[in-house]
């Protein structure tokens, strides 16, 4: 590998990421390849983005056909892909309406605005408080960051949006003390991603639903990372049977292209009017056609059953390693966290050397989120490689 790309990156790209020391050049299915042709088994899926793997032929065909026909129109005009994707999302979820944007953070920002508009319209001014939870991650813009319980992320950028308060995750009694007449919304991840892969209990989510109903607040589920089939059900909320008023999506929805979405019940949507929110690029024809492909395929019951089966196989294999450094293995479907009694950065670096891509979720948690197309042979390859890494690190 030449140093041209890393050198250019260091010279010209703002240094907000610590990047691996190789340059990825192409992908196919479960594998990525660097400039030297070295293959890497991908157990990150671009942080839960590439649900159908890399260079999926159907996504590529849909994008190619659409971009040759119509690449962009602003939202002052109708386009069929925009309407078709909205219809498909509503048909497969609780929602009556969809707002499209370009990222998960934007989806959260939209949900904040919609919750405050709803509260002002229905209840009058002053009902602006938002409850979120320890370990949360909702994004990096000023509003979304205010709901993200990370001191190191928040501290350099204060003052942030006022009105946010935090309860311990999965602690219903603590949450109930914060939810009250001034609360307009509660934001929660059914499975926390960046926070270390922590599924919320059904009792916790049901209790939040009841508390929101009691005080006229909206319950917002952030499924940016856990939605779109990642947990073995299409939506994370299906595991608990608790239905939110709004849900934020992004990541896997676009199959590698940038899109976000905020799903709303008709009750919430009815308070919003033209001009309340907007985005130049939101719901463009090309990305919507790609998202239609992804949504249709990850909604397939056979695909969801496959996710559950591969997740169970992976967890079983991890438990079979019996490594003394593993504290806990947790997750749902193919959203798995392996907590160690030490930092996992050396394991990730060792994976690079052995052609395996993994990421962390906090210093001590290894986050395993392969593309949903992973099969038994890929799981076996991962487990063999990971066992060798653990043995090497323990030597």
Could you explain the architecture of this structure?
With 395 residues, the chain is of the alpha/beta class. The chain folds into two domains: 4-56 and 301-394, Aspartate Aminotransferase, domain 1 (Alpha-Beta Complex); 58-298, Type I PLP-dependent aspartate aminotransferase-like (Major domain) (Aspartate Aminotransferase, domain 2, 3-Layer(aba) Sandwich), CATH 3.40.640.10. The protein contains 14 helices and 17 strands. Strand 8 (191-192) and strand 9 form a beta hairpin. The protein is globular. The protein starts with a helix and ends with a helix.
List keywords for this structure.
395 residues, alpha/beta, Aspartate Aminotransferase, domain 1, Aspartate Aminotransferase, domain 2, 2 domains, seven-stranded mixed β-sheet, four-stranded mixed β-sheet, 17 strands, 18% strand
What is the number of strand segments? 17
> What is the H level of CATH, i.e. the homologous superfamily of the largest domain?
Type I PLP-dependent aspartate aminotransferase-like (Major domain)
- CATH secondary-structure class of the largest domain: Alpha Beta
How many domains? The number is 2
Largest sheet: 7 strands, mixed
Specify the helix fraction band.
25-40%
Report how far apart the termini are. 30 Å
Q: What integer value in Å does the Rg equal? A: 21 Å
Indicate the CATH topology of the largest domain. Answer: Aspartate Aminotransferase, domain 2
Mean pLDDT across all residues, rounded?
A: 97
Strand fraction equals 15-25%
Q: How do the strands of the widest beta sheet line up side by side?
A: 4-12-11-10-7-5-6
């Amino acid at each position: 590998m030449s140093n041209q790309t890393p050198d250019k990156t260091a010279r010209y790209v703002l240094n907000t990421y610590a990047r691996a020391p190789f340059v990825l050049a192409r992908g196919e299915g479960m594998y990525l390849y660097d400039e030297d042709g070295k293959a890497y088994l991908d157990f990150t899926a671009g942080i839960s983005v590439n649900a159908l793997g890399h260079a999926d032929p159907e996504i590529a065909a849909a994008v190619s056909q659409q971009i040759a026909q119509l690449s962009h129109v602003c939202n002052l005009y109708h386009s069929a892909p925009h309407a078709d994707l909205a219809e498909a999302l509503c048909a497969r979820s609780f929602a009556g309406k969809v707002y499209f944007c370009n990222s998960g953070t934007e989806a959260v920002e939209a949900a904040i605005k919609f919750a405050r508009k709803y509260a002002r319209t229905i209840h009058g001014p002053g009902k602006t408080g938002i409850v979120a939870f320890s370990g949360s991650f909702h994004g990096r813009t000023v509003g979304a960051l205010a709901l993200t319980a990370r001191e190191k992320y928040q501290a350099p950028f204060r003052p942030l949006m006022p009105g946010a308060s935090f309860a311990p995750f999965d602690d219903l009694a603590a949450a109930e003390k914060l939810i009250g007449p001034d609360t307009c919304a509660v934001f929660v991840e059914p499975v926390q991603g960046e926070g270390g892969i922590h599924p919320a209990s059904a009792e916790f989510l049901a209790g939040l639903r009841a508390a929101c109903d009691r005080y006229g607040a909206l319950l917002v589920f952030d499924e940016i990372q856990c939605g779109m089939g990642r947990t073995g059900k299409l939506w994370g909320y299906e595991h608990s049977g608790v239905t939110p008023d709004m849900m934020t999506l992004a990541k896997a929805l676009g199959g590698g292209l940038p899109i976000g979405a905020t799903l709303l019940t008709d009750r919430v949507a009815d308070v919003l009017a033209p001009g309340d929110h907007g985005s130049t690029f939101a719901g463009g024809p090309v990305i919507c056609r790609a998202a239609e492909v992804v949504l249709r395929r990850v909604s397939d019951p056979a695909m969801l059953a496959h996710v559950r089966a591969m997740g169970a196989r992976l967890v079983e294999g991890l438990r079979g390693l019996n490594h003394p450094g593993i504290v806990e293995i947790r997750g749902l479907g193919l959203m798995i966290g392996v907590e160690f009694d030490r930092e996992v950065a050396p394991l990730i670096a060792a994976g690079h050397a052995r052609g395996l891509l993994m990421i962390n979720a906090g210093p001590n948690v290894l986050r395993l989120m392969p593309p949903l197309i992973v099969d038994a042979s890929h799981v076996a390859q991962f487990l063999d490689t990971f066992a060798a890494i653990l043995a090497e690190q323990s030597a």
